Amino acid sequence: MMDKATHDHAKAWLAVVSFAESSFFPLPPDLMLIPMVLAQPKNWYKLAGLCTLASVVGGFFGYAIGYFAMDTIGQWLLGALGLLDKFEALKPWIAQYGVWLILIKGMTPIPYKLITITAGAFHFDLLQFTLASIVARGVRFFLSAALLWRFGEPIRLFIEKRLALVTSAIAILLVGGFAAVKLL
After folding, report:
1. Parent domain of 144
2. How far apart are CA 133 and CA 19, in angstroms?
3. 158: Cβ–Cβ under 8 A, 6 or more apart, which residues?
4. What pLDDT is attached to residue 11?
């Protein structure tokens, strides 16, 4: 993937990897996004936008796998990725906390394909899935790209090692903010 990040068609590869990661591919697009933003810091927002858009569209593919083919392709795919037990654990959560689950899990490096396939398998509302996916994936990729743009190479190791912590904290703040507004 690092080779693809400097390839002539790097943006196309970033889109392909972002799409695939949301539905079936095991490697996160950050492996391409990080070196691409470092190489082209002025284009950080375009790269983050491309990554977000392709990830959300790939999420629709994952949703379709869960919706139409959970008993065949979905079971096999989650089993091959070692996520089948996590799928079973998400069953009670998706119905009760669907949007919040998508927001939180979509911002973190937890395999997003697990969320997209699970949402489809339980026929979660597609509009809510779409909106939550746009917010979650946008926060994740724009945050990483903005940090890289602002701080450059020195922040790279921090992002690579602590991306889960940073995005989880933002997810908690976002969910807490929405909950506070709803309760007021």
Report:
1. 2-183
2. 13
3. 147
4. 94
Below-70 pLDDT ranges, the chain = 1-4, 163-164, 166-167, 170-171, 173-184
Ordered DSSP codes for the chain: -HHHHTSTTHHHHHHHHHHHHTTT-SS-THHHHHHHHHH-GGGHHHHHHHHHHHHHHHHHHHHHHHHHHIIIIIHHHHHHTT-HHHHHHHHHHHHHHHHHHHHHHHHSSS-HHHHHHHHHHTT--HHHHHHHHHHHHHHHHHHHHHHHHHH-HHHHHHHHHHHHHHHHHHHHHHHHHHHHHHH-
8 Å CB contact between 120 and 94: no
Among the listed residues 97, 82, 87, 49, the one whose alpha carbon sits nearest the alpha carbon of residue 65: 87
pLDDT, position 171: 67
pLDDT of residue 24: 92
Contact 45, 145 (CB under 8 A): yes
Residue listed under structure tokens 């602002």: 150
Other CB atoms within a 10 A radius of the CB of residue 69 amount to: 16
pLDDT at 184: 64
